[in-house]
Amino acid sequence: MHIHEYQAKTLFNQFSIKTPKGVLVSTVEQLSKACSELGGSVWVVKAQVHTGGRGKGGGVILCHSMAEVAHVAEQLLGTQLVTPQTDAKGLPINQLLIEAGQNIERELYLGLLVDRQTQKITVLASTEGGMDIEKVASETPDKIIKFGVDPLGTLSSQDCDSIAQQLNLTDTLAKQFNQTLLSLYEIFTTKDVSLIEINPLIVTAENTLLALDGKIDFDDNALYRHEDILQLRDTSQEDEKEKKASEHQLNYISLDGTIGCMVNGAGLAMATMDLIEHHGGSPANFLDVGGGTTAQRVAKAFELIQTEANVSGILVNIFGGIVRCDLIAQGILQAIEKVGLSLPIVVRLEGTNAAQGLALLSRSKYNIYTEADLTQAAIKIVALSQEQSK
Ligand code: GDP
Ligand code: MN
Question: Is the same domain home to 218 and 294?
Fold first, then answer.
């Protein structure tokens, strides 16, 4: 689960990480009070959307008068923000964070994530923070400092000092950095975070470290034990279809290909997508209906796939281990009866009662291609969907 920058900053403050003073607004009327409260003569208007790259997309704007703040806010509120990290539609701007402008001397990068290769929580830090960090990472990877935390130990103060030294921080700043990094690590481990990032972490002209931005992603599987974090969810930022899918315990992710997939099990879904690609097609989605799925859930999944605009064919690939294939077949038929069938469909069933399931489908009055072999099924759906989109 993602949260907004302003929410990340509130959490930062609770753990003694310093941020600029800011006020959240959702209407233009709240602006003048917000600016006076913050004081000063420079403000930054920041769109609160669940994506990075806001600076590049025109969602972070430095203003030198209250009139400018009002003008910029009016332009942004109620619109969609498109950034290099969103799709063409972008994300809705319902709230703005107004912050007191800062005098920036240096922009650092500081983040923590789980490195799956080394199986460690890993600190990433760089002297080259700011809006081009992705470019720094890909073109000059030696400028990214990496430190893996011993899974049986913890991040020590000495570790933080050594990272501070590599960032060329003076003693005063190194001390602040040490506190900031230890706090980040504490948030990471106590809140079941999968990624936490401050970019940029700035050195101000007044020689203090401030988190100018904040990004936190939480492990969805651990949210059940963080009621406070769940409260921060903003569904306006979530994909309509993915949201609907999660209501029915379906793992659904929209992709930009043309073949809709319905599979049980994440690994099988990945293999199915690979096979479609291998035979010249491209998947329109990742959809895992779960191991112990039900006919109702299959029906729901089927509905979801059919509403995806770019789909020109559907491949169902179910392995009946816990679930019975004849029940899946019934679910598919129920779904077709309810929402109709306007696209070519290939169903591959394997496992418990596979033969009965396939027979049920081929006996039906609908034009369903059945297949016991996955490679054949993939070849068939690629051909059918190419024909369909002609
Ligand atoms: P992101 O593009 O979504 O990562 O948004 P950020 O919150 O990181 O803001 C983008 C950039 O705006 C930062 O890297 C800063 O360079 C700049 N910025 C943000 N706040 C201030 C500020 O108070 N003063 C100045 N001068 N620049 C700012
Ligand atoms: Mn940023």
Answer: no
Q: Which residue ranges have their beta carbon within 6 Å of ligand 1? A: 44, 46, 52-55, 60, 62, 101-102, 104, 107, 130-131, 199-200, 212-213
Residues 283 and 219 in one domain: no
Question: In this structure, what CATH number is given to the domain that contains residue 222?
Answer: 3.30.470.20
Ligand 2 centroid, distance to 119 Cα (angstroms): 26
Nearest CA owner, ligand 1 atom 13: 130
pLDDT grade for 51, boundaries at 50, 70 and 90: very high
Q: Which structural domain, as residue segments, surrounds residue 316?
A: 239-389
Give the residue ranges of DSSP H helices in the chain. 5-14, 31-38, 66-76, 133-139, 157-166, 171-190, 227-230, 240-247, 266-278, 295-306, 325-339, 354-363, 374-388
The residue nearest atom 10 of ligand 1, judged by CA position, is 55
Backbone angles phi, psi at 345, to 5 degrees: -135, 135
Q: Tell me the pLDDT band of 249, cut-offs 50, 70 and 90.
A: confident
pTM: 0.82
Please count the structural domains in the chain.
3
